[in-house]
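Exam revision sheet. Question 4 asks you to relate a sequence to its structure. Input first:
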Amino acid sequence: MDTSTGTRTGAGRGTSTSAGATGTGAAPSEPCESSAVLLGFVNTTPHGSGPVELLGDSESLAAWLTGAGLMAADTAVTRADVVAAHELRAALCTVFLSRSGCEGSADRLPEAERYLARIAERYPLTLRVTAEGCRPAPAQAGVLGAFAGLLAAAADLAARGAWLRMKICKNPTCYSGFYDRTRNTSGLYCGTACGSQAAQRAYRNRIKDASCAQAS
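Answer key, structure tokens:
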């Protein structure tokens, strides 16, 4: 997978959500620190190209959030925080899956959006205004502030006009998060390899269906 699409690593890409002032960062067609940290987060979930759970306990969650620059290294993390991280990640994955038209994602999307609306109150953001511009930032520290940092990354991407470019690959043997670089945000796969696999699978299915029709 292209490293700009959120390579699956134990601590993400070591990025933070301080991706620069709104309106002054990367162009919407290019990935940025906010996209990297969110893709790193969703790609910690077990999926086709990375079948291991990377946030399975409090130690691994603490390591990931610290490595991503979202909280201080000495922050205490509990099992309840791990559960909350999994819930947040699942909701974001559903949003990204829905943009690729992945099976079942449309049915799960309303609940995911309701969940994200609820936790936005638990993980509040504030606006940091400087001479260079303004950007969303967590209103608190600790693990809750780290989760708010992920929401701040989403808000930053929306301000950049790039939120709709955050997707999960439609190839069921992959399901990796990626940043859609296409001009009209029509990309469905993280790369040409997954696109080719999907095309070959569709071709084989058509041949199989045609053979069954002839046999009947």
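Marking note for examiners. The CA atoms of residues 98 and 105 lie 5 Å apart.
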